[in-house]
Amino acid sequence: MSAPDGPLDPRGVRFAAIVTTVVLALVLLSGSGWLALAQTLVFALGAFAGMRFTPYGVLYRLVVAPRLGPPAEREPAAPVRFSQLVGFVFAAVGTVGYLAGLPVLGIVAIAFALAAAFLNAAFGYCLGCEMYGLLARARA
Amino acid sequence: MVGLLVLVGVLAAATAVGLVLRSRAGRVRTTARPAAPNGWDLAGTPAGDARFLLLQLSSPICTPCRQTAVLLSGVAAQDPGVRHVEIDVADRPDVARELSVMRTPTTIGFDRTGREVLRISGVPRRGELVTALER
């Protein structure tokens, strides 16, 4: 991952998780590999460029944030980026599954990504961020 | 059809996990681990006249760890018998291993003799913690 970026508005991260949850739910309902691919690209932007560059981040900044006022606190970007990378891996596997005619692989991979996104959207619990903390511990 | 069933199943399972995590977060759990290492030794500070050690394990990038540090140093400031020590698990992975800590922030309470008596994962619930310290 490239240079660390500035801290994030946690409400924006939550907003992105909500949109991600909806998109992944639609993938499961429609079985559309192309929609899965679109979400995979969003995850890739979040992981390799930063949350600010994802369409959900842009939508939050332009439409949602101006109605909310300034954030009371900010959260570090690195764990969130890592969580996007985890999402990217699962969504990429799911996309390959759907597009290569392996629907079971697609469903299972997208189901995992959906569970993580939903936990963040509904409870503010970031599974990928927790994993980042654990990995930091293991690396040290 | 399969997609719909999986969707409902995933949302139900994730909701259950989320509710369990939420109900546990910040709760004071009394622990009794006789073989656990001595808290004052891990903190690298003698007990002195303190009767209680709150050892906080944090990681470098962790928003709730900062909230926890503020809360615990406030508790320690109000009660001279309580000492708060924060350890970064990136610097001291051995401490996390010895105490079997898997998440940050985790706060472990040790009595005067260094025996572990309580454990809190997540940002502690202040009232619950203060009550536990008074006992």
TrEMBL record, chain A:
Residues 9-137 form the DUF4395 domain. Keywords: Membrane, Transmembrane, Transmembrane helix. The chain crosses the membrane at residues 12-35, 82-101, 107-127. It holds the Pfam family DUF4395. InterPro entries: DUF4395, UCP030042. This is DUF4395 domain-containing protein. It comes from Pseudonocardia oroxyli. The lineage of its organism: Bacteria, Bacillati, Actinomycetota, Actinomycetes, Pseudonocardiales.
UniProtKB/TrEMBL annotation, chain B:
InterPro entries: Thioredoxin-like_sf, Thioredoxin_domain. Residues 51-133 form the Thioredoxin domain. Coiled coil: none annotated. This is Thioredoxin. Pfam families: Thioredoxin.
